[in-house]
Amino acid sequence: MRREESEGTQLHERGPAAAPSYGVLAARTPIDHEIEIRRSRFICRLERVESEEQARQVIADRRSAHRLARHHCSAFVLGARRGVQRSNDDGEPSGTAGVPMLEALVLHERVRGEVESADLSDVVAVVTRYFGGVLLGAGGLVRAYSESVSSTLQLALLAKRESRAIFGLEAPHATAGRWENELRTRGVLVTGTEYAGSTALLSLAVPDAADARRGLASEVASITAGEGTLVPLGTEWVDLS
Length: 241
Hints:
The protein is built from five helices and 14 strands. It has helices at 52-65, 98-106, 137-153, 173-185, 210-223; strands at residues 2-4, 9-12, 21-25, 31-37, 40-48, 71-78, 84-88, 111-112, 115-116, 123-130, 158-172, 189-196, 199-207, 230-240. A seven-stranded antiparallel β-sheet has the order 1-2-7-6-10-5-4, with helices on both faces. Strands 3, 11, 12, 13 and 14 form a five-stranded antiparallel β-sheet that branches. The chain has a two-stranded antiparallel ribbon with strand order 8-9.
């Protein structure tokens, strides 16, 4: 489903994602890349964002940084299930800039190492165009804005962001280090250890699935000889390298 907003931005609604994970830009620093097509300059900025407010601030900052440019077209995708998808042509003919930019983000698929990033989200793309005096036509504009985003994405390092169930494990100081090492050896993600009083609290994260929780309970029982008790602390999104 697609509808026009008053400011010329499109909202695309999608169903839920198949798995509780998605791809993100690994770096928090912006990525800039420029291409030239028939004397027009297309300068793309990609940036990781966590809210619509942040995305719109990136767009405003690019407009401020390139005041002499004719267009600052944009697209962004937000959320684990990519529920927020918006684009803006910023004065280019309708459908020739923002929509192809959004499609380049949504359809981007690449495997790097063990990270598959088909469902890229939490990202904003802004393409600033300096007009070179040659009209590109509707088809030329679509290709130019799509290529600008796609070529910039090829420069980006990507990470997988996954929903993890978080547990606390209280341990005596004397055994906390050993428990932590054995948990790590068995592939359990230990996100932190806090020492307070006579005990330490280990924070553990596993995929947010019933079998993963059961597996963690089994590992903890084995390592601690039944002395350790897991305390559920909720869920959070974790970037995986």
